[in-house]
Amino acid sequence: MTIRSNPALDSLFLNGSLISQSTYHQAMNAALQVISERYANLERPFSGIKVEELTDRMAGLNVCPEAGRDLETSLAEVGRLIAAHSVAVHHPACAAHLHCPPLIASLAAEAVISAMNQSMDSWDQSPAATLLETQMIEWLCDLFQYSGQAEGVFTSGGTQSNLMGLLLARNHFVATRLDWDIQQHGLPPQMKDLRILCSADAHFTVQQSASLLGLGRNAVVPIKTDAAHRMSVDDLDRQLTRLQEQDLLPFALVGTAGTTDFGSIDPLPQLAERAAEQDMWFHVDAAYGGALALSQHHRHRLAGIQQADSISVDFHKLFYQPISCGAFLVKEGARFEAIRLNADYLNPEEDEEEGTPNLVGKSIQTTRRFDALKLFLSLQHLGRARFAQMIEGTLQTATEAARLIAADPQLEAINPSPELNAVVFRYRPQSPHENLSYEAWRDQLNQDIRQILLSEGKAVVARTKVEGASSLKLTLLNPRTTLDDVQAILEEVKQTGKRLEQTKGEGVQHVRYVGTASHYAELS
Ligand SMILES: *Cc1c(COP(=O)(O)O)cnc(C)c1O
């Protein structure tokens, strides 16, 4: 069958015709142009525009015009309105979250992924892609030292991977211990007794999953953490005894390998031991810290992860992939049975008998992107060794940054030896406030510093609370960020703190939530 040319549509869809090919090149070049212009001479990580002003400007968009117009014009508008007021993830002062600059190799892969538009749910929508994803999953299973029984799937990220871990854990427990078919009958009568254990510093998606799984957030038992923000095994033992005394049913233990705030890694071998003793599903949330497995220097810190029943790992964090990209791995692949349903049009039982792989059975998504390709291409381009070096470099920068902070009398280091990339600290008030306690004054200053830096576009710094006290956080994921860059951010923090102290923080109410540089200039 030959593809006939259709002049009216050839310039809208990619195909073999000359007009289609040249339109595609033009469109891609115009998109590249928007990005290049945005990146050229970028001084600040954010324009600092106010919410109200941007809302007003965006309100002028007609999102669905009656008649279309040329793509270049619209792309130029995207440049002026969207790109100009997006945070620049590659800028060294964009250092708030686990939000990475993407590798160029992965951006090239994205172009291929979207143009080919393979859908990972069935073999007939993604033949080679299905096999490449499967190979990537095998490589990941090896990386975490799983045995040959392990299987997995690419996901949209840690949220979905954690939900899948707890979903499999719940279904497995209910089937094997309560003899209940949850896929057919819904939640069992004992559901109110089910419990999930995780550290108090675990990611909020553990609670979110508990609520989505019909168990409720109260099903999550938070375990205390030690001074280094790792799960306390003593407290875990105490809680397990208490649950047993109360005849409750702890079915899942979640260990975190790299907490969002401190990068701390729970004592995985001890957790694995407790999980085995109590017949609990052991899920390791390595969304962030999983990348350590690439590094020969750091992988020992993940020891014990190979005993996990399931693992979450994200690639849109320390693996430098564009959002979204993650994976969920299961030690015994057969456990996927607990969520599998057969759809006659996607994964009929005949296919399975013939050995045709349809990945839909391993995912809670149906239509799914071929994200494995971008990780593949990035690994091909950099190679493991260079990838590892890059990650190690960021950990080194974080360690040195914490040292700088600890040595600075105007700052207070909360984690003087960071586990991963997160450096948590506070600005110290240099003089007291007449009406506020030291702590309240410090809280106010630190909150305002962050807000002002954002509203001036000078730095995107995160906020968090440590034992109730407002703190600032730098997440130094960007391999291009140097210690000088960190020093510059810290200078801004200190100068802003000083300016605020001089005005006693008065009248800063406006800036506190939606403030702007000009507001602040008026005040000071
Ligand atoms: C980022 C993160 C998550 C959530 O993952 P998403 O990819 O944002 O869905 C879960 N757990 C940890 C430890 C994380 O760092």
UniProtKB/TrEMBL annotation:
One Pfam family linked to the record: Pyridoxal_deC
Family the UniProt entry places it in: Belongs to the group II decarboxylase family.
Sites bearing N6-(pyridoxal phosphate)lysine, chain numbering: 317
Name the record gives this protein: L-2,4-diaminobutyrate decarboxylase
Superkingdom, natural source: Bacteria
A GO cellular component entry from the record: cytoplasm
The species this protein was found in: Melghirimyces thermohalophilus
Keyword field: Decarboxylase, Lyase, Pyridoxal phosphate
Classification via InterPro entries: PyrdxlP-dep_de-COase, PyrdxlP-dep_Trfase, PyrdxlP-dep_Trfase_major, PyrdxlP-dep_Trfase_small, Pyridoxal-P_BS
Cross-referenced SUPFAM superfamilies: PLP-dependent transferases
Annotated GO MF terms: aromatic-L-amino-acid decarboxylase activity; pyridoxal phosphate binding
Keyword Lyase: yes
